[in-house]
Amino acid sequence: MEASKKIVLIVEDELPMLQVLKDKLQESGFATFQARDGEEGLQLSITQHPDVILLDLLMPKMDGMTMLTKLRQDAWGKNVPVIVLTNVSADTDATLKAIVTTQPAFYLVKSDVKLEQVVEKIQQVLDRKPQ
Amino acid sequence: MKFLVSKLSFSYLSLLIIIFFVYTFAGKLGLSFAYVNASASAIWPPTGIAIAIFLLYGLRMWPAIFIGAFIVNLTTQGTIVTSLGIALGNTLEGVIAYILIMRFANGVGVFEKVGSVMRFSLTACLATAVAATIGVATLFFGGYTHPGTITSVWLTWWLGDLGGALGVTPLIFLWLYNVHFGINIRRVGEFVLFLLLVAGVSEFVFFGALPYPYLCIPVLVFGAFRFNQREEATALFVLAAISIWSTIHGLGPYNPGARDLTHSLLLIQFFLITSAVTVLTITAALLERRQTKSALASSEERFRALIEKSFDAIILIDATSKILYASPSIFRILGYTPEELQGTRGFDLVIPEDQKMTMETLSKIVLKPGATQTIEYRSTKKDGNIIWVEVTGTNLLFDRNVGSVVVNFRDITERKMSEDILSQEKAEDEAMLASIGEGIMATDDTGRISLVNDAACEMLGRSRKDLIGASVVDTIPMQDKMGKVVPVVDRPMTKVLKNGKTIVTSPDNFYVRADKSTFPVQFTLSPILLKKKVVGTVEVFRDITQEAAVDKAKTEFVSLASHQLRTPLATINWYLERLLDKELGTLKPSQEKYLDEVYHASQRMVDLINTLLNVSRLDLGTFAIEPENVSLPKIIEDVLHEYKREITSKKLIVQKKIPKTFPRTSADPKLIRIILQNLLSNAIRYGSENGKVSIVLTHDEKNYTIEVKDTGIGIPKKDHNKIFTKMFRSDNAKIHDAGGNGLGLYLVKTIVEKTGGKIWFASEMGHGSTFYVSLPLSGMKKKIGVKQLR
What we know:
The structure holds 2 protein chains of 2 kinds.
Chain A: E1 7-11, H1 15-27, E2 31-35, H2 38-48, E3 52-55, H3 64-73, E4 82-86, H4 93-102, E5 106-109, H5 115-128
Parallel strand pairs in A: 1-2, 1-3, 3-4, 4-5
Helix pairs in contact in A: 2-3, 3-4
Chain B: H1 10-31, H2 46-57, H3 62-74, H4 80-104, H5 114-142, H6 150-176, H7 185-206, H8 216-226, H9 229-248, H10 261-309, E1 313-317, E2 323-326, H11 329-334, H12 338-341, H13 352-367, E3 372-380, E4 386-396, E5 404-411, H14 413-435, E6 439-444, E7 449-452, H15 454-460, H16 464-467, H17 472-475, E8 478-479, H18 492-499, E9 503-504, E10 509-512, E11 518-530, E12 533-543, H19 545-580, H20 589-620, E13 628-630, H21 632-642, H22 644-649, E14 653-657, E15 665-667, H23 669-685, E16 692-699, E17 703-710, H24 731-736, H25 744-754, E18 758-764, E19 768-776
Parallel strand pairs in B: 14-16
Antiparallel strand pairs in B: 1-2, 1-5, 3-4, 4-5, 6-7, 6-12, 8-10, 9-11, 10-11, 11-12, 13-15, 16-17, 17-19, 18-19
């Protein structure tokens, strides 16, 4: 893992999705960690301090929103850019409220975005973030 | 004085001349019998002529009388002065008689009544006395009579005039007054026989065979029973002529053989005057009686006809209902002849079930003189059929002329049947109204409830008693979705009463029950129009709690299902993306083509799912409007770009008419995109190969309009009103492209309307369609909602 590479933590329970995301991001020059549920994602985040977190919402053990909420309580975690990448529309009041409090950088619906666009968004987030 | 003179018309003058000659002739004839004095005759018909002429033609005839009398006297004896005096007396006599008759003796009807005949006789006595007095005085002062003969001259004069008045006046007047020319041969024959009889008897008496003048009286009286005054007057004249003639010729009971002729003539005159008064009086009396009788008979006949020809039957019964009389109409109604019913008991005609009621009614009527009651009951006809009758009974038991209960009897079977049908129908209607599951509520023109059915009462949790007469807006509060009470001015009831237009359910209305609980309501509120005026409203409503719950569950299901569907699709898309990006190596062109198809099919699936989600959000009413300052031309360009591939593959020519400078407006770009995407994708989908698609953007002061036009298959006329319905697709669209989901236009219309705009279209089968969307330039209003449309 090259030190200059930005690290993206992918939290995704669906293996095929995780796979294609990992492949695409690595090809696009990112280093990746993968987590299969919220618990794992939270632990990896706090220990590994990735530059960006791609976060699914509907996951076993701990869902994405709970993980993000907990992450925001962490000193490091409260500022880390998070891109929500899910198939759940931001439909319910709870979700919307959580979005407001946890401040994800983007809320992307998987079926509506191309992988290419995911990469673009990560890039945008990283560009925005002070080095 | 007007009645004394007259315009000198030809007819008046001719009449004067005729009367003059008749009068003069009669005068000369009369004076030929003057024996005591050349000027005083015991036979003086001119008096009668004068009175009759005045009665017939009025006083304006006086010149004929006056001149006639003057000439007669001047040519007889004396000077101009005495003749003038006598003529004055003769004229005055007629005038006085005329005035008195007109005043006291029934005028021209003088001979029709006993009383007036009496008065006429008295009048004649008086008037002729005047003439005699003036005449004799004139003669005396003229020196034509001696004081010793004055009395006999006066008496002769008076009686002569009186005879003329009583005998000749009726003869002339009755024959000339109101002449009818209808001749009844039998009557004429009878009359001639009567005259011959009178003449025969007169001759018998006055030519000496049986010299008893009173024999003539019975004959004349007998005539009075058969004939009228006119015929009697003629008979009297015949009697007078014969008796006078015979006496002059020395024959008969008054023959002058024993005494002088004047004395004989005076006796004759007495006899004739007595006969005339008697006969005229009796005739008048008989005539009066005949007239009364015929008047009575005709009125009785009229009433009988009224009763017998009356469509209703008239029945007279006594207090025990015994039938005393039944009019012939009863046969038509019951089949019995009046004779069959006479003497039978009226109650026997009533069917047993109704007898008690009729008996009670009759006893009530009988107790009170003059009482009237109308009842309806069933009666048995002679043939056994039962009919409905309406019967009005009036108690005239104490009326001496009637002495019974008068019953008006009418067949009302037909009316009863239609009433039964009507009430049956009404009951059915009411039962139907009560059984309808929907609430029905009718109001008057002030919004007060005039009718509610059971369902309405139940839904509103109020009794019918509470609702009838109550104002809808006051009694049944309406709330919106947020639980806010809808103000009276915004109530559909207020609007319908004001505008007279039907309002069909405005969504998200709740009615508040008596216990303050609410239920979602769906209703149709229509005005009741009478001659184009709103006279009330009728509302059909229903509790849609169930439907709303089902709808919500459905929407949530669609939402959840959509999420689940998205995951595999997203996976497919991403893997395809990687393959098509050739990041894993080059593909054969054919492989690439195949994968391209797969990718687009998958994309369509994504679109479908998103549309479904949007629809479910719209249906739930929870979508948000987030206006931004946008450039419409830019959005149009972007959307067009998205469809570049489809446009190219269908070889469509796109024409844009977009102003170079277009005011920026406040709108939710996502919603604008959804509108444009759907309209454009439809235009492409249903456009023809090599066809044209045009997009036109225009604006006026208030609105901007986006126009999307294609040259494709068009929309069938019959489907024009359904095209915006959810899931609707017209047949030609299904044949043309099986891929559509029937949601696009529904989505567009809903968005357009929720953002304050309008949508409409023009289309012709085979020639394409043009859709217009007009939105306010002022921008969309922000709407906070949980969900965004994507």
